[in-house]
Each structure stands twice: as C-alpha cells, then as structure tokens.
Amino acid sequence: MSTLKPLQIDIVSDVVCPWCYIGKRRIENALALAPDVPVEINWRPFFLNSWVPREGISRDE
Fold it and tell me: Cα separation of 59 and 52, whole Å?
C-alpha cells in the first residue's frame, strides 16, 4: 500500500475527437510505465457549444 498522495490529473476531452482518443491512449501508456505511482484522473467534458442550456435546443431552430 502506497503512502504517496495521488497525482491528480484533470483532463478535458471530447469523446468524438480522434486527437482526444490518441491523448487518452498516451496517458494510459504513460501511467502503465509507473504502476506504483497513485493517480487520480478527473475526466471533464469539452462543450463545443457551452451556451446550450442543459435541456438542449431544437435542431429545427
């Protein structure tokens, strides 16, 4: 059991972006190189249109 405080990583990602997928794979590969380092990843969404309300909008508008 490690007594190290977990490394906190915040990642903003878009699930349909191919570059974000490449970045996800790279971070997974990097973390696999140091399995003894505790890591806590906080995945956050990238909002293309951040002005859209939570209930959404009609595509007809």
Answer: 12
Task: Kindly report, residue by residue over 20-58, the tens digit of the pLDDT.
Answer: 999 999 999 999 999 999 999 999 999 888 888 888 888
CA atoms within 13 A on the CB side of 20: 11
The alpha carbon torsion through 22, 35, 33, 37 (nearest 10 deg) reads 90
3-class secondary structure, 24: helix
User: What is the SS3 assignment for 2?
Assistant: coil
On whether the CB atoms of residues 45 and 12 are closer than 8 A, the answer is yes
